[in-house]
Write a structure and sequence with these properties.
A hairpin with a 4-residue loop joins strand 31 (366-372) and strand 32 (377-383). Helices cover 31% and strands 27% of the residues. The strands form 15 sheets. Strands 49, 50, 51, 52 and 53 form a five-stranded antiparallel beta sheet that branches. The protein has a four-stranded antiparallel beta sheet with strand order 1-28-27-26, with no helix packed on it. It has 1253 residues and is of the alpha+beta class.
C-alpha cells in the first residue's frame, strides 16, 4: 500500500481540535475543539463518477474540484471543549460531549444539523461514547466509573456504577459484551447488562516495568466481511508502544507488536484489513531539547508493518477513516489533515480480463471475479485463503494457503477462471511474478521458479512432448547461493535453510529471459531464465519495494519504501567492483504505480498522488488527474481501471470504470491530420516514429484516397495487408468504388452498401455481405434485386446454421426447410424431439439415401424401434435393422426380420443373451426375452422350472399356480403358431372353386398343415411333459388351493371331493401333503373309509421316515378304534374311474391315451371341484378349455383356473352345455388334442390376480 498527505483544512481562529469522527455512510466529518467548537464538514467525493460529475457541474454553475468542502456547518450548544464525538451511521445521528459532562444528540433535518436531545449528569465528565454496530444502543462511560446504556430513541436501558475509573469503552460486534479501559492499564469485560465477566489478558505488556495506560480499544464488527477466516479483529494499544491483536476477547494466542512510538489513537479501516496507529517519537535532541515527531503507522491484520507516514504539527488528537477506506482524517493542532491511501488490492489484468478478489460478508472464502472487459462477461470463483494474484500474457496465477501448516498452492488460471495447472509449494509467496513461461514465488530467503510452458507448447501439464521432468520444470534456491544453476534444484532434494538471511528479499520482477531479485540492502541479483545462471549484481541507493523491466531489458524502474521512483540503467558500466549498471539521478516522489510500454523501451506511465504522467525517456508530458491503477501500455494507449470504484460494488463492475489515456504524440498526430497538410503530419510522425502513428497516417491517407502516402505509411509500420490493399485500390479505376472499398476497410459497412447501390452494383453489396457472413442482409439483398435462387437457398442454409449454432432449433428448421437441407433438418427435428416430423421426412427421402441410416440411429437412440427399423430397411441395411431390434429388446421383430432376410446369427445371439441372464439368475428377464422372440417352448420350460423351484422352496402355492398357468399359455401359443395357416393361401383356397389351381392350393394347404402337425409331434416327443401336459401343473395347484379354501370355509364335503382329485397329481404335489389333507378332510366329513385309505397310503409311502410312519399308525389307531373305517355313502370320486386298477400315475404322459382306450372320463368343475354331468349348465373357458358349472361362476368375471375373462352375465355363452363329443379328462385337454377353438391367450398380461395372492 501507499499513503500520502493530500489536503489540509484550517480551523478559523486557530482553535485547537480535540476530537474527530468521519461518518462511514454519508461522509460527514464532525470535529470538536476548544471553546465549544463543533463543526460538521463534508468533502466532495473521490470516486471516478463523483469526479466526473463534479467536473461537469450543474448547468450555469462552475465546476467543483474533488476534495473541496461541500458542507461547513458550525453547531452551537457546547460551552466547554468538545472532547468526544461519535456517529450513529445507521440512524444518522451525531452524539457529542464536552469537558463539563454535557451530552448533545444532533439530528439531520433538511441537510442541516439540529439538537434533538440534551443530557448532563453534572457529576463527572464523559471519557468515551460508543454506539453498537447496529446503532440501536449507546454506551456512555464517565470518568468516575458511571456507565449509562441508552437506546437510539433516548430511553435509558440501564445505568450502573462499576466502581473503577474509566478511560475508554468498546462494544463487541454482536453487542453482547462491553470492554472498559482504566487509567491503570487494565481492560475489563462486562456483559450487556453491566455484570462483570473477566479481564482481557494483556500479553503484550508482559515484562514491561512501569505504569502503562490504555490508549485505544478497537473491535472490528465484520460488517464488510473478513480478510481470512479467524483473523484478528480486536486491537488493544498501550501508551508504552505495546499493542496486541486478538481474535476474541480471551484469545491466548494474540499477536503482540512493539510499535516503537508513543501511541495515542488506533483505528481499523472499514473492512478490518489495515490498522492505523497514531503516536510520536522523541527526536532532534535529548532531554528537554527533544521534540515530538508525530506519525501514523499502518499494520495489517496479522501485525505486519506496512507503512509509516510522518505528520507535521504538535500532536494528533483525533483520527478516523473514510467509509470506503481510501482516506484517513487526522486532527492536528488547529488543522485537519487528509491522507490518501492506495491499497494493495489483489488484482491483475490480462487478455482483456480484469481479475480481482474481494470479501463477502456471508462467505469465508475470497470471491475472485474474472471480468471480461470487452464483452462484459463475469465469472466469479471462490478461493480459500487467497494470498496474492498476478497476471501476464494469457494466464494469471493465484497463490493460496494450503490446509497444512507451511503449505501453499499456486493455481494457474485462464481468462474465464478455469484452473489450467497447479503446484503445491512450501515457500511462502510474499513476492509473486509471472511471465509468458514462468511463475516465480519468493519468500524472505527462498526463490521458487516454475516453468509452466515453453515457446512451443501451451501448458506443459497437458503437452505430451513438453518438459516432463520435475527437476526441470520446478527449481528452488536460497537467495545467498552463489550459482543456483548448478546441481539438482528440484523441490524433493531442496532443504530449507536453518538460519534466516540477514539481507531478505524485498522486491522481485521477471521478463521472459531475466529474473531480478531485489534485497533489503539495495542489491539486485540478476539471473537468466530458465537456467537460473547468475548474470551479475546491481547496487541501488535505496531499499526497493517494486521493480519493473522495460520491454528490451535495458532499464529497470525502482520504487522504494518511501514512494520514490528512480531508474537503473543496466547497460551502463558499474561503479563498484563486480557490479553492472548505473542508478540514474532521476527521481519522482509520491509514486505508487508505474507501467512500461510493451512496444517502446523509452515510454512509461506513472501515478504520482492523484496525477498520471507519461514519460518519453525522462521527459514528462502534461499530467492527467486520475486515481486509476495502470493495466497496460500498448500502442501509445494506456488502459487503466478504477479499482476503488469497482470495490464499492464488486459483484457488478461497470465498464465505465475502465478508461483509456492517449499519449501526447498520438493526440498531436490527430490534430495535425485534422488541421495541417499531409506532408507536415508525415514529418511529425517521422520524428516521433511509432507503428501506431504510421497506421493513423495511413488510414487518414486512405480516407483522402492518397494512395502514395498510404503506401509509404503502411511500409513504415510493416503492415503487409495494408500494402496489398492499397495496390488493390490502385487497380480500381472508379473512385466511387475506391471509396466504397475504403469504407469496407474501416468497417463502415452500411455506408459502403449505400455506395454500391448508388453505383447500381447490388452484386458487390451482396458479395460484401457474404464476405462478412451477414446472411440476413444477403437474403434481403437477393430478394430485393431478384437475384439467383441458388444464392438465396445458400443464404437460407447459412441462416439455419446461425440459429442452430445458438440452439434455436425451431427457427433453424424453418430455414433448412426452405433451403431443402434434409441433413440438417434431421438434426433440428431430433433436437426438437419432433419425431413425427422426422418420420415424415423419412418417408420423403429416396431409398438408399445415406441420411436414412442417420435417421435410423436417431430413432434407435430414443427407443422408437419401428421407425428405426423402417429407416434402416429403406436405407438397405438389414443388419442394422436387426441390431436395432436387439438393442431395443424387440426380439420378436428381430427374429422375424432375421428369418425373412436369412440372418441365422440372431439365434445364437438370442441364446447367448438368454444364458447370460440365466447365469445371473435373472429368470424372469430370460423368460420375457424368449417370449418377445416367440420362442414359446423355451419360455414355457423356464416357467415350469421356475415353478418347480418355487414349489421346492415352499413359496405361496398361488405363485406356483400362476407360473404353471403362464407356462401353459406359452405352450398354447406355440401350438397355434405351429398349426397356423398362411392367410394368403387360405384366402385363395376359399375363393378358387374346383379348378386345377384350387386343387393345387388345397394340396399346398394340406401339406402345410401336415408339416405343422409333424413339427408339433416332434416338439411333443422332445418335451412330453411340457407340451402334452401343459395344464396339469396349473390344475394341481389350483385344486390344492381350492381344497384348502373349501375346508377353511366349512365345506368339508367339497374339500374332500377336491382332495380326491389331487391323487392324480402325485408327480407334481407332495404325496405326503396330499394324503394328509385327504385324511383330514375325510375325517371331518366322516368318510372314515377314505380316511383309512389315506392313512394306509401315508404309512406305505417310501419317502416318509419310519418314525413318522409310526406316528401316522398311532394316529390312525386312535381314530379307528372309535370309528369304523367305512364311508356313509358312495361318491363318484371314489369309484374306479378316477383310480383305475393298475394305473401308472407316475407316467402321466400316457394317461390321456389310457383314458381314451378305457372310456373312463370324468369332467371336473374348476370352480368347485365337483364332477360335471351332462344335465348341468356349464361353461368352457376359451383360453384354457376347462369346464365349470355355470351356477358356480354366476358372479365371477374370470376363469378360476387361468383367470381369463368369461362372457359377461346374461350372455348366451353362459347357457351352453357340455358337448356330447367332449373327450376332456378332469376338465383338461386330452393328450391327443393339439388344437383349440377360439379364445386367443392374453399372455402374461392377461392373467388376473386372485384376492388372496
Amino acid at each position: 500500500m501507499f499513503i500520502y498527505l493530500s489536503k489540509k483544512i484550517a480551523i478559523p481562529n486557530n482553535v485547537h481540535l480535540k476530537c474527530l469522527s468521519w461518518n462511514m455512510e454519508h461522509g460527514w466529518i464532525a470535529c470538536g475543539g476548544e471553546n465549544g467548537l463543533l463543526k460538521v464538514l463534508r468533502l466532495e467525493g473521490s470516486s471516478s463518477r463523483e469526479i466526473k460529475s463534479a467536473a461537469a457541474g450543474a448547468p450555469g454553475q462552475p465546476a467543483t474540484q474533488p476534495g473541496n468542502l461541500s458542507l461547513n456547518q458550525t453547531l452551537e450548544g457546547h460551552n466547554g471543549s468538545v472532547i468526544c464525538v461519535t456517529w450513529n451511521d445507521s440512524f444518522q445521528k451525531l452524539t457529542t460531549s464536552d469537558d463539563s459532562g454535557l451530552i448533545i444528540v444532533w439530528m439531520l433535518h433538511k441537510d442541516m444539523w439540529f439538537e434533538e436531545m440534551i443530557n448532563n449528569r453534572n457529576k463527572s465528565i464523559v471519557r468515551d461514547m460508543k454506539w453498537t454496530s447496529s446503532g440501536e444502543k449507546i454506551c456512555i462511560a464517565y470518568e468516575d466509573g458511571a456507565v449509562i446504556v441508552g437506546s437510539v430513541d433516548g430511553n435509558r436501558l440501564w445505568g450502573k456504577e462499576i466502581g473503577i475509573n474509566l478511560e475508554l469503552v468498546e462494544w463487541s460486534p454482536d453487542g453482547r459484551l462491553l470492554l472498559f479501559a482504566t487509567p491503570q492499564g487494565e481492560c475489563h469485560i462486562y456483559d450487556g447488562n453491566g455484570n462483570a465477566v473477566s479481564k482481557v489478558p494483556l500479553y503484550c505488556n508482559e515484562g514491561y516495568v512501569g505504569s502503562s495506560k490504555l490508549m485505544g480499544i478497537e473491535w472490528y464488527d465484520g460488517v464488510e466481511g473478513f480478510a481470512e477466516p479467524n483473523c484478528p479483529v480486536l486491537a488493544v494499544c498501550l501508551d508504552n508502544g505495546r499493542m496486541q491483536l486478538m481474535r476474541y476477547e480471551s484469545d491466548d494466542n494474540a499477536v503482540c507488536i512493539d510499535t516503537g512510538i508513543k501511541p495515542c489513537k488506533c483505528k481499523w479501516n472499514m473492512n478490518g484489513t489495515i490498522l492505523a496507529v497514531a503516536g510520536f517519537q522523541l527526536g532532534g535532541g535529548s532531554g528537554a531539547n527533544a521534540r515530538e515527531l508525530w506519525m501514523v503507522q499502518f499494520y495489517n491484520y496479522n501485525g505486519e508493518h506496512l507503512r509509516t507516514l510522518r505528520i507535521p504539527g504538535n500532536g494528533i488528537t483525533g483520527m478516523s477513516w473514510e467509509g470506503n477506506g481510501l482516506r484517513l482524517a487526522l486532527s492536528v493542532d488547529s488543522f485537519i489533515y487528509f491522507c490518501n491511501v492506495r491499497p494493495d488490492y489483489k488484482w491483475g489484468y490480462f487478455c482483456n480480463t480484469l481479475v480481482y478478489a474481494f470479501n463477502r460478508p456471508d462467505r469465508t472464502e475470497h470471491c475472485v471475479m474474472f471480468w471480461d472487459t470487452k464483452n462484459n462477461d463475469k465469472y466469479p470463483k471462490y478461493v480459500r485463503k487467497l494470498v496474492a494474484i498476478q497476471a501476464f500474457g494469457d494466464f494469471c496465477v493465484l497463490a493460496t494457503k494450503g490446509e497444512n501448516a507451511g503449505e501453499y498452492i499456486l493455481i494457474l488460471c485462464n481468462a474465464i477462471g478455469s484452473p489450467v495447472d497447479s503446484k503445491y509449494i512450501e515457500v511462502e509467496p510474499k513476492f509473486l511474478s509471472i511471465t509468458n513461461y514462468h511463475v516465480i514465488a519468493a519468500s524472505d530467503d527462498v526463490v521458487y521458479v516454475w516453468q509452466f510452458r515453453t515457446s512451443y507448447s501451451k501448458v506443459l501439464s497437458t503437452d505430451v512432448t513438453g518438459v516432463k521432468r520435475k527437476d526441470v520444470r520446478e527449481k528452488l534456491f536460497h537467495i545467498d547461493e552463489a550459482n543456483p544453476s548448478v546441481g539438482d534444484r528440484s523441490p524433493e532434494t531442496f532443504k530449507a535453510p536453518t538460519l534466516t538471511t540477514s539481507d531478505p528479499v524485498s522486491a522481485m520482477t521477471a521478463s521472459e529471459g531475466v529474473l531480478m531479485v531485489g534485497r533489503a540492502s539495495g542489491v539486485v541479483q540478476r539471473y537468466s531464465l530458465p537456467h537460473l545462471t547468475p548474470e551479475g549484481q546491481h547496487v541501488l541507493r535505496c531499499r526497493p519495494q517494486a521493480l519493473a523491466l522495460n520491454c528490451n531489458t535495458t532499464k529497470m524502474s525502482v520504487i522504494d519504501i518511501n514512494g520514490v521512483l528512480s531508474f537503473f540503467d543496466m547497460t551502463a558500466k558499474g561503479g563498484a567492483p563486480g557490479t553492472v549498471g548505473e542508478h540514474l539521478a532521476f527521481e519522482r516522489k509520491d509514486a505508487w504505480d508505474m507501467r512500461w510500454a510493451d512496444d517502446n523501451p523509452e515510454l512509461f506511465a506513472m501515478m504520482e498522488k492523484t496525477r498520471m504522467y507519461i514519460f518519453r525517456g525522462l521527459d514528462p508530458e502534461e499530467p492527467v488527474t486520475s486515481s486509476a491503477y495502470l493495466c497496460t501500455f500498448h500502442d501509445l494507449e494506456i488502459a487503466a481501471v478504477y479499482i476503488d470504484d469497482i470495490m464499492q460494488q464488486p459483484d457488478q463492475p461497470d465498464i465505465e470504470f475502465m478508461t483509456m489515456y492517449e499519449t501526447r504524440s498520438l493526440r498531436d498526430t490527430r490534430e495535425l491530420l485534422k488541421n495541417t497538410s499531409m506532408e507536415d503530419a508525415y514529418s511529425f510522425v517521422d520524428d516521433n516514429s511509432h507503428p501506431r502513428l504510421w497506421r493513423i497516417l495511413a488510414e487518414h491517407a486512405l480516407e483522402q484516397l492518397d494512395f502514395s502516402m498510404a503506401d509509404k505509411a503502411f511500409v513504415r509500420c510493416a503492415d503487409y495487408q495494408g500494402i496489398q490493399f492499397v495496390k488493390h485500390l490502385q487497380k480500381l479505376a472508379d473512385r466511387a468504388k475506391q471509396r466504397a472499398e475504403v469504407a469496407v476497410y474501416f468497417k463502415r459497412f452500411d455506408e459502403a452498401e449505400q455506395m454500391y447501390h448508388k453505383m447500381d452494383r447490388p452484386d458487390l453489396a451482396t458479395d460484401m455481405r457474404m464476405r462478412l457472413g451477414d446472411w440476413f442482409k444477403v437474403e434481403r439483398l437477393v430478394k430485393e434485386t431478384s437475384g439467383d435462387d441458388s444464392l438465396l437457398m445458400h443464404a437460407w442454409n447459412k441462416i439455419g446454421e446461425y440459429y442452430s449454432d445458438r440452439h434455436k432449433w425451431a427457427k433453424a428448421a424453418q430455414y433448412y426447410a426452405q433451403s431443402k437441407s434434409s441433413g440438417m433438418l434431421v438434426e433440428c427435428f431430433y433436437a426438437l424431439e419432433d419425431f413425427t416430423a422426422l418420420a415424415k421426412l423419412m418417408d420423403a427421402l429416396p431409398e438408399g439415401s445415406q441420411m436414412l441410416v442417420n435417421m435410423g440411429q436417431k430413432f434407435q437412440s430414443v427407443g422408437l424401434c419401428n421407425e428405426g427399423v423402417a429407416a434402416f430397411l429403406k436405407a438397405g441395411d438389414t443388419k442394422k435393422a436387426i441390431d436395432c431390434c436387439v438393442l431395443l429388446n424387440q426380439w420378436d421383430q428381430g427374429v422375424a426380420l432375421a428369418q425373412q432376410h436369412n440372418f441365422p446369427q440372431i439365434e445364437g445371439l438370442l441364446a447367448k443373451y438368454a444364458n447370460h441372464l440365466l447365469e445371473k439368475e435373472k429368470f424372469l428377464e430370460a423368460i420375457e426375452l424368449y417370449r418377445k422372440a416367440n420362442h414359446h417352448t423355451e419360455a414355457a420350460k423356464l416357467l415350469q422350472d421356475l415353478a418347480q423351484k418355487s414349489a421346492a422352496m415352499k413359496v405361496h402355492p398361488l405363485r406356483v399356480k400362476k407360473l404353471h398357468v403362464l407356462a401353459a399359455l406359452e405352450v398354447d401359443k406355440f401350438k397355434r403358431r405351429t398349426l397356423e395357416m398362411n392367410p394368403i393361401d387360405a384366402a385363395s383356397t376359399m375363393m378358387s372353386g374346383g379348378t386345377t389351381r384350387s386343387q393345387a392350393t388345397m394340396a399346398a394347404t394340406a401339406q402345410q398343415t401336415l408339416a405343422g402337425l409333424m413339427t408339433l409331434e416332434a416338439a411333443a416327443s422332445e418335451n412330453t411333459k411340457g407340451i402334452d401336459a401343459a395344464w396339469r401343473g396349473a390344475e394341481a395347484y389350483h385344486f390344492w388351493l381350492l381344497a384348502h379354501r373349501q375346508l377353511y370355509a366349512g365345506s368339508v364335503d367339497l374339500a374332500m371331493r377336491t382332495a380326491l382329485h389331487l391323487r392324480n397329481y402325485e408327480d407334481l404335489l407332495d404325496p405326503q401333503e396330499v394324503y394328509s389333507f385327504l385324511a383330514l378332510a375325510s375325517f371331518y366329513n366322516q368318510f372314515y373309509g377314505q380316511c383309512s385309505k389315506a392313512f394306509i397310503k401315508l404309512e406305505s409311502l417310501p419317502s416318509i421316515p419310519a418314525d413318522k410312519q409310526l406316528q401316522y399308525g398311532d394316529l390312525a389307531m386312535s381314530i379307528f378304534l372309535k370309528n369304523t373305517p367305512a364311508d356313509p355313502r358312495a361318491v363318484r370320486e371314489t369309484s374306479g374311474a378316477s383310480m383305475r386298477p393298475g394305473a401308472k400315475v407316475n407316467n402321466p404322459a400316457y394317461e390321456g391315451l389310457l383314458d381314451d382306450l378305457t372310456g373312463a372320463k370324468d369332467v371336473v368343475c374348476v370352480a368347485s371341484g365337483r364332477l360335471v354331468t351332462k344335465d348341468m349348465p356349464q361353461l368352457r373357458c376359451k383360453t384354457c378349455k376347462h369346464v365349470m358349472i355355470a351356477a358356480e361362476v354366476r358372479m365371477q368375471v374370470a376363469c378360476p383356473l387361468c383367470h381369463a375373462l368369461l362372457p359377461p352375465p346374461g350372455d348366451k355363452a353362459r347357457e351352453g352345455t357340455l358337448p356330447k363329443a367332449s373327450s376332456a379328462r378332469h376338465g383338461a385337454p386330452s393328450a391327443g388334442a393339439y388344437g383349440h377353438s377360439g379364445g386367443a391367450s392374453k399372455g402374461m398380461g392377461g392373467i388376473q390376480e386372485e384376492p388372496d395372492y
